[in-house]
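Page 47, continued from p. 46.
Same chain as before, 160 aa.
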Amino acid sequence: MINRNYILLIPLLTMIASCNQNKENNQVAVENNEFVASAPKIQRNVAPENAVVYFITPSPNAVVSSPVKVEFGVTAMEIVPSGQNTPLTGHHHIIIDADLPDMNFPIPADENYIHFGDGSSETTLNLDKGDHTLQLLIGDYLHIPHNPPMYSDKITITVE
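Result:
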């Protein structure tokens, strides 16, 4: 049984080691027959200097009715659809009732993190009555925040 485990472990370690092309960012080790690995670091594209992302509408502390029309703006950067790996470009993501995600990973995609990979700069949100927070975050062609990350101020709106 022990020999069989080693037979399975050796090809697995060989595959992992062969994937480890950037030794500065990845570490693979076997210590006391335990596998230890660190996650690879994601390359983040450089953000344009002086770029700013912001809400055109609604304004902070606005009292609105649902559906809520939301328009976003950006300066010193071109908005393009996701998948286009062009320097100093990106696309919008809106964060609803949540905090900024970990900037070292792609932006999540769920009911709190809405992607606008088509390059659009406006939407209509169906929000329940009550207070809601909104924040914009620009992602690159792979939905990864730039370096430094480009995000708007978090605003609060009230839906009546």
